Amino acid sequence: MTITVAILGRPNVGKSTLFNRLVGQKLALVDDTPGVTRDRREGEGNLFGFTFRVIDTAGLEERFDASLEGRMRVQTERALEEADITLLVIDVRAGLTPLDEHFANWLRRSNKPVALVANKCEGRAAEAGLAEAYALGLGEPIPISAEHGLGMSDLFHTIQAAIPEADEEGLEDEAAEAAGPLQLAIVGRPNVGKSTLVNKLLGEERLLTGPEAGITRDSIAIDWAFEGRPIRLVDTAGLRRKARVTGKIEKLSTADTLRTIRFAQVVVLLLDVEEGLEKQDLTIARMVVDEGRALIIGVNKWDSCRDRDAALLAIRERIERSLPQVRGVPLVTLSALQGHNIDRLMQAVFGAHEVWNRRIGTADLNRWLEAVTAAHPPPASAGRRVRLKYMTQAKSRPPTFAIFCTKPQDLPTSYLRYLENGLRETFDLPGTPIRINIRKGENPYAKKK
């Protein structure tokens, strides 16, 4: 069965970019100038093998006369009438505008299924706008980057909800088969055995290896499968301290590795057990955490370690002391050369990926919030208690939470760490980055019916 998806939103939020992404071609003109799109444009969208009709519309304007803007609005209204589901696109980097709020109210009255699509969500700069999006009262926003193709699987599941129940089982199977591979990057300092590990995983000498440091220059991506699960495996150039990076090629290699981390889902930081966890390793780990990727520590050359207990204890203590923001990060000892514990490493990768994708129900979160604030209330500010009113999960990948409270600026970092540790313990979120956005305001659903 073919359904119709209409893309609506105020001017210049990325509707045409999303349209082009869904149809797989640059059919719609895209420019930073608002109002490029004027007519409805239709195409055949495709997400993970499922096809549907998609309509790109002009930017919504509050005009009801015979002007050009008024006629454009009529075209948009017709697209809404034809749609089985409407995607209201907002620009989270620009934040909510009165026009976003106006048309969210208009769409709620349309009695059509509406999904809130939070575009331009790449990077941490979008987090504040993503949390604000809940105030529109259209449910959980879908974070995407139409330009970079991020968040398309979440968008697929939203569109899937508009399909009659008789078709859902087949679509779920189709989505599971066609979903993109797990993006796995192997990073670390030079000569710790990254390429050797990749070769052992693949079962062939796919990459050059040797005792010389710095053999790998490019980030090499290889499509692979482990126990039937598709994986895009990326070997990267070794990362040295910035002060030691002098040559042009090494600078390019470093930039390529950092870009790989940004687009990975799970990152294995490989160490040499004889050298332990050095300052540069911690720097790399923090890069991974700052980008919100799932992190695993792989301790290589374990077969050659003479005092294993002391080496492992030193690494664990350094991790606990220097990386408290990813408490419980998986630590796997292995030998890339001999192939020891390779299966254990991959099970840790799958486990970290599952935690990174985990979603927690709003009701469960608010019961937890009530319990932890009762056990340890926030400190008072100017004689008045800071009250945490409401909590929801803004997104996964990594788990990101929004808490609405009375005085967000007066909530100390130590209390946020208390909340973060409580979330990890209660909801079993070891090792993954957790982000908590504190916002001032009422429960955005309290007055919605």
Keyword list:
449 residues, alpha/beta, Rossmann fold, GMP Synthetase, Chain A, domain 3, six-stranded mixed β-sheet, 13 helices, disordered C terminus
**Which CATH architecture of the largest domain is right?**
3-Layer(aba) Sandwich
Unreliable stretches (pLDDT < 50, length at least 5) are 28-39, 64-68, 165-178, 207-218, 442-449
Number of helices: 13
Number of domains: 3
Spatial strand order of the main sheet: 2-3-1-4-5-6
C-alpha-based Rg, rounded: 24 Å
| CATH fold naming of the largest domain | Rossmann fold
User: Approximately what portion of the residues adopt beta-strand conformation?
Assistant: 15-25%
Structural class: alpha/beta
> How are helices and strands ordered from N to C?
EHEEHEHEHEHHEHEEHEHEHEHHEEEEHE
Question: Describe it for me?
Answer:
The chain is of the alpha/beta class and 449 residues long. The protein has three domains: 4-177, P-loop containing nucleotide triphosphate hydrolases (Rossmann fold, 3-Layer(aba) Sandwich), CATH 3.40.50; 182-356, Rossmann fold (3-Layer(aba) Sandwich); 362-440, GMP Synthetase, Chain A, domain 3 (2-Layer Sandwich). It has 13 helices and 17 strands. A six-stranded mixed beta sheet has the order 2-3-1-4-5-6, with helices on both faces. Strands 8-9-7-10-11-12 form a six-stranded mixed beta sheet, sandwiched between helices. The protein has a three-stranded mixed beta sheet with strand order 15-16-17. Residues 28-39, 64-68, 165-178, 207-218 and 442-449 have low confidence and may be disordered. It comes from Pelagibius litoralis. GTP 1 binds at residues 9-16, 56-60, 119-122. GO terms for molecular function: GTP binding.
